[in-house]
Design brief:
9 helices; about 45% helix; 7-stranded parallel sheet; alpha/beta; binds nicotinamide-adenine-dinucleotide; single chain; about 250 residues
């Protein structure tokens, strides 16, 4: 098992990609602390699904874009799990509009949930990982952060910002054996992308050399590489996980 008795915090794991990461890590023996915005049916289901894989798992209600909430989430995790090895910053939202119509609220909301959250969570775990002299942080960006996209200036900026933050943190934390890497997925089928019209899905798929969208499990495997000893010499990386999409 690649993560036997490690403890991982995964933000936004009540569904989609975060949930797949939690499940994949649990299959490798990792104990999982995860969060969502409310304690809903999904959160309870994920807890049960992970516990059935034989690991300790607990869902927390946290708004990771809020500094104090992120601090409290990490403090509670340490109280409940005893230690911490891995942080996956996965929580994210979209709120699309053309720049000429995008409101300040749309900008602030997406930047706060997608980018400020990574700052808040990194600040919350840093003293713990620093003291123990080990740790792995994986931040979920997007190909949109590398290439831009129509109607997604807020999302593209947030995801590009994650890359800059991660590269800076990789430099600052490297001497303490804390690795910071980025996974930048392309088109992944989840609830978030479920609303995209069929026509647009077809358009995206014709631009993907591997001729299929990605799955949450594809993203989970990439995170597993960086989180485990398989990726022990990687830091400051950006993995393009997009089936070879040409402009990513
Ligand atoms: P999703 O909407 O299915 O899940 C998002 C999760 O984040 C949910 O569990 C939600 O509760 C949580 N969340 C949202 N705001 C939060 C907050 N303020 N505090 C705590 N939790 C919060 O999304 P997904 O498709 O699984 O995407 C996961 C990540 O992958 C996001 O960062 C997204 O930008 C990124 N991504 C997705 C795709 C894709 O095609 N689906 C592609 C590239 C990148």
């Amino acid at each position: 098992m690649l993560l036997k008795d490690k403890v991982a915090i995964i933000t936004g794991a009540t569904r989609g990609i975060g949930r797949a990461i939690a499940k994949r890590f649990a299959q490798e023996g990792c104990h999982i602390a995860f969060c969502g915005r409310t304690r809903n049916e999904n959160m309870i289901q994920v807890e049960e699904e992970l516990q059935n894989l034989g690991v300790k798992a607990k869902g927390y209600v946290a708004d990771v874009s809020n500094y104090d909430s992120a601090q409290a989430f990490v403090a509670e995790t340490l109280k409940d799990f005893g230690h911490l090895d891995i942080l996956i910053n996965n929580a994210g939202i979209t709120d699309d509009a053309a720049l000429k119509r995008m409101t300040e609220a749309q900008w602030d909301n997406v930047i706060n949930v997608n980018l400020k959250s990574v700052f808040c969570m990194t600040k919350a775990v840093q003293p713990v990982l620093w003291k123990q002299g080990s740790g792995s942080i994986v931040n979920i960006s997007s190909v949109v952060g590398l290439a831009g996209n129509y109607n997604q200036a807020n999302y593209a900026a947030s995801k590009a910002g994650i890359i800059g933050l991660s590269k800076a943190a990789a430099k600052e934390f490297g001497a303490r054996n804390i690795r910071v890497n980025v996974v930048a997925p392309g088109f992944i089928v989840t609830e978030m992308t479920g609303d995209i019209p069929e026509q647009l899905k077809t358009y995206w798929q014709t631009r993907i050399p591997l001729r299929r969208p990605g799955t949450p499990e594809d993203v989970a495997n990439a995170c597993l590489y960086y989180a485990s000893e398989l990726g022990s010499y990687n830091t400051g990386d950006v993995m393009h996980l997009c089936g070879g999409m040409e402009d990513a």
